[in-house]
Amino acid sequence: MQVKINGKSEEVQGATVLDLLKAKNIDPHMVAVELNHTILERDHLGTAHVKDGDHLEFLFYMGGGR
Amino acid sequence: MNFTDEQVTRYSRHILLPEVGGKGQKKIAQSKILIVGAGGLGSPAAFYLAAAGAGTIGLIDSDLVDLSNLQRQVIHQTPDVGRPKVLSAKEKIEAINPDVKVLTYEDRLVAKNALELIRAYDVVIDGVDNFPAKFLINDACFFAEKPLVHGGILRFDGRVTTIIPKKSACYRCVFKTPPPPGLVASCQEAGVIGVLAGIIGTLQATEALKLVLGIGRPLTDRMLDFDARRTTFREIKTKRNPNCPLCGSHPTITELFDHEPEVCDLKQVEA
Fold it and tell me: If DSSP codes are grouped into helix, strand and coil, which group holds residue B128?
């Protein structure tokens, strides 16, 4: 199926958001995830189903400043 | 307050703007802006806010200038190495614009001092380099109900967002808690391209001035991410999260607290 991840269209496999993160080797603790503009609870990543046309944002922590 | 002839000349390029004018310049002259961290982001923010004629600039930082800071912390210069950052920054600000009152706090922002300090200001700029402090600033601005201009830089990426407590998404609406220690690079070992501090810090100063002037559209409910490798900006829409532990419908954070300090260990981090 085709989804948008961080603004880019991608062909992905997997049923849930957690599947997509795993496929990209992203530790769920390193990101906040928005599915169609709504923040997902980290506990729900494994139950949040992804469907064709969904918009996902993987927001990484950005901590520096000095 | 009335401006002297010299001040009218100094601020003429502001006064010429219909959105600013003499009235707006007075707002700037009466504004009190707190910059937390006199480093990479704090340097350009302080420079431009000083030049703009901000009434009071508060600077809080407990560090001394280190040689490795000079690659990006442009308010500090080679002879400043070893001196308190707040002192070094205060001198530069006063040299740019003697109209500005600079208040310095050679200290760390912690739960114990944050609220009292922040309450004395109109706008807060986050220029700190670690997550415990970023979360503390977010929480303190929420409790003090002060607008916050958040910034972050890492490697080739930067991020800015403006938070108006109880009105727009806060940092915890998106990132509930700091990342587990050691998982995400935020400390000095990660590296950062120096100019990013200038780009993000000046955006933060722009946001602060807009808030003071009450003009335009603040960078609220949006995160602006900058990628220096590709020179692209991307805006990510955010919104208040009803499950936010701080500003949600059933908050679990009801008072200010300090998160565990970060351990600077990046062994587990993949770059």
Answer: coil
Reported as a single tens digit per residue, the pLDDT across B58-91 is: 999 999 999 999 999 999 999 999 999 999 999 9
Chain B environment of A25 (Cβ under 8 Å):
270
Domain range annotation of chain B: 14-237
Residue B260 main-chain phi, psi, to 5 deg? -55, 135
Q: Do B238 and A34 touch (CB under 8 A)?
A: yes
Count how many domains chain A has: 1
Domain with A43 in it: what CATH number? 3.10.20.30
Phi/psi of residue B149, nearest 5 degrees: -110, 110
Residue A11 domain-assigned? yes
pLDDT in tens, A3-62: 999 999 999 998 999 999 999 999 999 999 999 999 999 999 999 999 999 999 999 998
CA distance B227 to B230: 6
Distance, CA of B207 to CA of B48 (rounded, Å):
12
Closest Cα to residue B214, out of B72, B63, B27?
B27
- The fold of the B14-237 domain, in CATH, is Rossmann fold (3.40.50)
Q: Which of A29, A30, A62 sits opposite B159 (nearest CB)?
A: A62
d(CA B140, CA B172): 12
